[in-house]
């Protein structure tokens, strides 16, 4: 680095015309002073453009100097009582620490984090005291995505506000008995407190971007006035390594989301060590965000540095600041002032001269910008008032600020949760916490009297901003009626003879009906990821338009067609492009609008099932945490339903994944009428009754005749299984065939073959949700276990099957694990055989794929016959005859291994 400094110094010394250089610089200073920075920027851009056009090589850089973006003379100082605010922050730091340390002294396995809030405390204090509005009658409130590991500090603030009791604080991470506090922001566990879950990391930034766009969507469509609301998202610099953190920043700029503020807490450390030990994370992020079109504000240095930078006439200090890597900066804050003098200022003799009159303590008190309330306030103010672009604040802080030798700026800071008595004493003294020595071992919480001036100030600040945050609305105030099932008569009726349609086409009819509904039509949010034409939904383009804040600035190439591509400022469709994570984030914003906006919205996110559930699995869990309400529609679902597409296009596992999320209600319907019954009941539960569930419904693109709804089967459809058709009552042998999705039809054909070729009757059962009947069985089993003296409860599927006879064969287009869920609830002594599509997908026709995965009608027949033979009802030779008859190759390799 000294060599680089020498080169820069030599370049300045070798200036062939220093007078001319000074004239240019003086001219630029005059422009800035008299006409402002915008004019100066314009002139510089014109000069750079001219130079490039004349052949000069001027490398592009989206970086600025490693100093604060806001010049000192333009800083707007914080108007609050900073003495009160500093004391309040100190008490919050103490109480956050006490909560975590007390929990881990009582139970060392509970965990918890102190250092993240320690570095964030100033930023959060400024936001809560001066910027962030709570929901009121005339303001929808700001939305906060808070850095997940800072939750102890948020609890500490709520404790001082009187929103949390000491008993709750003492039960941090002890939630089972119902009085504790969740480890991280979890709306599912604290439904009136946390707005959003922000752990897993990376999801907060991604969801916040689409949340900000959804606020614009609501406003453009006149559903809610969101014009004065902001979305603030806090994340760590290490978190920005998550692809989700940065993946949508281009969209945020493209959509002009000036209601979005991202604050990156650049404490230079993640769990294991430095984020960019050999580089500079702030400069890296600046280039990324500025290049994407964001308004970038860097808050790097505290006020003590201002005078030094003003003295830096030759730019030596700035050059050293730029060339010092983050690993060194981390080291400086873990040592002392003497170390900083020697190893930082000692990099150049003139820097040592600059600080010659400063003591080591003076040097140590040169803070980072994120710990100064005035610097933070000025940055927040600019972010709040910025128009036309999203804003990112890159704020430099110290990890574990105030933790002293136990963790401050050390690699262990993130995991530190068990401070010793000496570290606790140091923290008390550093932040002047009024706790006597004889009480320190107890680590008591500190809360002054309610009439203490600091406490009065705390409540007054929140009163001026409309109330306390974070807070969450568990129910919308409005009530919307849902249409009766009869509204979907066009898909409840059987199709005309010879007329075939798919469940995907049926769904399009259902959503078209809903869009015309006078009560719900404007609340439907169709969300698509560049597959509208695949699902036959392109007709919606012209009907309701695609949301775009700029409208349509071009004439679409297909304008002469009925279903042309129409973008509109008030469009209703959210078209996310090839972006499943973005589509899911938009869906989450709409599915939680009842809480965030007091407006019930009904999102239908339709995607390739293979590229949906497996890609957005983490977001689906976040949706469960957020108590989302809406419909996820997995199109072209099942391992064998999608002709010719191949290994990575064929879904045999999405229902297994969906089954893991407790408040997700998964359905795999076969027929149009089943889809209608499920959607209508979902509307009843989620809209009319405001129940915190969401639906995953798979759809097929395979066309076949639809039998229509048989009255009386609605309850069975919703519970997950019902008798579709009975076999010959006079037959001597009988089997039960269960199927779902497109493979149910193979079970129907198998029943016909069993009757025709072998005289065996088969009852056919449609199972729209094997997962729901499994959950019912588990619930009944648990109840019976803990009520041993009462009559046991029979699971729903047991009740259905115990009235039948013969082996039970379940076949789906998914892994065997899907249907194995209900094995435990079959009547005792009954054979239960499962066929499924384990293994990789591949390209071919549906007929060939079902033969390959051994789930076609012939394999179902063989499975039924083999089960009867195993029970001694028929001879095994009958099974062998069937294998020969249907041309099944018994030496064919197991598809799982292929």
Overview of the molecule:
The structure is a single chain. By secondary structure, the chain is an alpha/beta fold. The protein is 42% helix and 9% strand. A 6-stranded parallel beta sheet has the order 9-6-10-11-13-12, sandwiched between helices. Strands 1-2-3-5-4 form a 5-stranded parallel beta sheet, sandwiched between helices. It has a 5-stranded mixed beta sheet with strand order 14-16-15-17-18. It is elongated. The two termini are 57 Å apart. Residues 1-11 have low confidence and may be disordered.
Distance between the termini: 57 Å
Helical/strand content category: alpha/beta
Shape: elongated
Strand content: 5-15%
Poorly predicted segments: 1-11
Number of beta strands: 18
Number of helices: 37
Quaternary arrangement of the chains shown? single chain
Mean pLDDT: 94
Radius of gyration: 33 Å
Main β-sheet, spatial strand arrangement: 9-6-10-11-13-12
Describe the main β-sheet briefly.
Answer: 6 strands, parallel
The level of helicity is 40-55%
What is the fold's blueprint, element by element?
Blueprint: H1 2-13, H2 18-35, H3 37-53, H4 82-106, H5 115-130, E1 143-145, H6 151-161, H7 166-169, H8 203-220, E2 231-236, H9 243-246, H10 249-254, E3 260-266, H11 281-292, E4 295-299, H12 304-311, H13 316-323, H14 326-334, H15 337-343, H16 349-354, H17 360-364, H18 373-385, E5 391-396, H19 421-430, H20 453-464, H21 489-492, H22 503-515, E6 524-528, H23 539-544, E7 546-547, E8 567-568, E9 574-575, H24 580-591, H25 593-596, E10 602-608, H26 609-612, H27 617-625, E11 631-635, H28 654-658, E12 664-667, H29 672-688, E13 694-698, H30 714-719, E14 722-725, E15 734-739, H31 744-758, E16 761-766, H32 770-786, H33 796-801, E17 808-811, H34 816-820, E18 832-835, H35 846-852, H36 857-870, H37 876-885
Helix pairs in contact: 2-3, 4-5, 4-6, 4-20, 5-18, 8-24, 22-29, 31-36, 36-37
């Amino acid at each position: 680095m000294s060599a680089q400094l020498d080169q820069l110094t030599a370049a300045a010394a070798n200036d062939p015309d220093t007078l001319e250089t000074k004239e240019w610089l003086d001219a630029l200073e005059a422009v800035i002073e008299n006409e402002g920075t915008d004019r100066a920027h314009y002139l510089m851009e014109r000069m750079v453009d001219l130079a490039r056009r004349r052949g000069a090589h001027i490398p592009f850089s989206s970086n600025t100097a490693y100093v604060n973006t806001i010049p000192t003379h333009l800083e707007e100082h914080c108007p609050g009582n900073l003495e009160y605010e500093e004391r309040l922050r100190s008490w919050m730091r103490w109480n956050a620490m006490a909560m975590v340390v007390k929990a881990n002294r009582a139970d060392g396995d509970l965990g918890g984090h102190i250092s993240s809030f320690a570095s964030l405390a100033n930023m959060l204090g400024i936001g809560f005291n001066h910027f962030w509005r709570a929901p009121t009658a005339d303001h929808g409130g700001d939305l906060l995505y808070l850095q997940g590991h800072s939750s102890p500090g948020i609890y500490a603030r709520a404790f001082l506000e009187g929103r949390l009791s000491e008993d709750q604080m003492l039960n941090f991470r002890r939630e089972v008995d119902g009085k504790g506090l969740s480890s991280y922001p979890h709306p599912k566990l604290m439904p009136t407190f946390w707005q959003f879950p922000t752990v897993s990391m990376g999801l907060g930034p991604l969801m916040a971007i689409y949340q900000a766009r959804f606020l614009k969507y609501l406003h453009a469509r006149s559903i809610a006035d969101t014009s004065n609301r902001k979305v603030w998202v806090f994340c760590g610099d290490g978190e920005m390594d998550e692809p989700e953190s940065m993946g949508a920043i281009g969209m945020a700029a493209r959509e002009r989301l000036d209601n979005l503020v991202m604050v990156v807490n650049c404490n230079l450390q993640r769990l294991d060590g430095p984020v960019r030990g050999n580089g500079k994370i702030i400069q890296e992020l600046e280039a990324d965000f500025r290049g994407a079109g964001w308004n970038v504000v860097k808050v790097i240095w505290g006020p003590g540095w201002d005078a030094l930078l003003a003295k830096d006439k030759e730019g030596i200090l700035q050059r050293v600041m730029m060339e010092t890597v983050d690993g060194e900066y981390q080291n400086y804050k873990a040592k002392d002032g003497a170390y900083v003098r020697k190893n930082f200022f000692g990099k150049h003799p003139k820097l040592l001269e600059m600080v010659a009159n400063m003591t080591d303590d003076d040097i140590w008190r040169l803070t980072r910008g994120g710990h100064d309330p005035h610097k933070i306030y000025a940055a927040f103010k600019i972010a709040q008032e910025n128009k036309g672009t999203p804003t990112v604040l890159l704020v430099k802080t110290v990890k574990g600020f105030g933790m002293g030798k136990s963790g401050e700026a050390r690699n262990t800071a993130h995991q530190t949760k068990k401070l010793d008595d000496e570290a606790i004493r140091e923290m008390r003294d550093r932040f002047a916490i009024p706790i006597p020595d004889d009480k320190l071992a107890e680590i008591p919480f500190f809360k002054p009297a309610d009439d203490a001036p600091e406490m009065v100030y705390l409540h007054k600040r929140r009163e001026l901003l409309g109330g306390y945050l974070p807070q969450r609305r568990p129910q919308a105030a409005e009530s919307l009626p849902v249409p009766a099932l009869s509204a979907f008569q066009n898909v409840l009726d059987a199709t005309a003879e010879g007329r075939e349609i798919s469940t995907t086409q049926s769904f399009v009819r259902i959503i078209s009906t809903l869009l015309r509904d006078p009560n719900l039509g404007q609340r439907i949010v169709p969300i698509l990821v560049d597959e509208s034409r695949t699902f036959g939904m392109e007709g919606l383009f012209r009907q309701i338009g695609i949301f775009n804040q700029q409208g349509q600035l071009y004439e679409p190439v297909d304008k002469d067609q009925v279903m042309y591509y129409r973008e509109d400022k008030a469009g209703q469709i959210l078209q996310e492009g090839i972006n499943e994570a973005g589509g899911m984030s938009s869906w989450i914003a709409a599915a939680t609008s009842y809480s965030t906006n007091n407006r019930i919205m009904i999102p239908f996110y339709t995607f390739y099932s293979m590229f949906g559930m497996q890609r957005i699995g983490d977001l689906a869990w976040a949706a469960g945490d957020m108590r989302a309400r809406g419909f996820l529609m997995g199109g072209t679902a099942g391992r064998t339903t999608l002709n010719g597409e191949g290994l990575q296009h064929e879904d045999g596992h999405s229902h297994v994944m969906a089954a893991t999320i407790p408040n997700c209600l998964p359905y795999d319907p076969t027929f149009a009428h089943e889809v209608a019954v499920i959607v209508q009941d979902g509307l009843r539960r989620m809209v009319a009754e405001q129940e915190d569930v969401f639906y995953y419904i798979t759809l097929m693109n395979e066309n076949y005749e639809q039998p229509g709804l048989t009255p009386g089967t609605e309850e069975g459809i919703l519970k997950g299984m019902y008798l579709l058709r009975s076999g010959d009552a006079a037959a001597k042998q009988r089997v039960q065939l269960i199927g779902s999705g497109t493979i149910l039809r193979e079970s129907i054909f198998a029943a016909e073959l069993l009757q025709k070729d072998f005289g065996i009757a088969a009852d056919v059962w449609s199972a729209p949700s094997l997962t729901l009947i499994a959950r019912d069985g588990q619930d009944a089993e648990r109840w019976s276990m803990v009520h041993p003296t009462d009559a046991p409860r029979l699971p729903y599927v047991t009740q259905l099957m115990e009235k039948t006879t013969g082996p039970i064969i379940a076949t789906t287009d998914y892994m065997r694990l899907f249907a194995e869920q209900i094995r435990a609830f079959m009547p005792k002594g009954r054979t239960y055989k499962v066929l499924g599509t384990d293994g990789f997908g591949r390209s071919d026709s549906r007929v060939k794929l079902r033969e390959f995965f051994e789930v076609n009608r012939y394999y179902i027949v063989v499975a039924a016959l083999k089960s009867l033979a195993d029970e001694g009802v028929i001879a095994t030779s009958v099974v062998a005859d069937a294998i020969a008859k249907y041309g099944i190759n018994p030496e064919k390799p197991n598809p799982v291994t292929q």
